[in-house]
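Students often ask why we bother encoding 3D structure as a string. The short answer is that it lets us treat folding as translation between two languages. Here is a chain of 116 residues written in the first language.
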Amino acid sequence: MTNSELLQYCMAKAGAEQSVHGDWKATQIKVEDVLFAMVKELDERPAVALKTSPELAELLRQQHSDVRPSRYLNKAYWSTVYLDGSLPDSQIYYLVDASWQLAVNTLPEEKRRRLE
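And here it is in the second language, the structure alphabet:
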């Protein structure tokens, strides 16, 4: 999977908005100003930072060498996933969906209803 393919998938999510974080040289994908994905090149490889529960983050890191704690985000919740690594595309898409849902869950009820 490429960064472009992942960005296309992320931007298809309801309410998704894209911006560039200059300091991190990354493309941020947010829903109602809540970050759910950050796409960038890391170590010259395509990668995405996604939010999960701390338990899932730890499990993924134990099982896959291509899943690591995110450098700039809360390491308990955010993991960087290399897109050209051992995780199948279907699992990466699942993690994007879950990260989007976690972001949506933080929104006020009225905004959530408009998105779901």
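Translate back mentally: Residues 89-105 form the longest helix (17 residues). Keep this in mind for the problem set.
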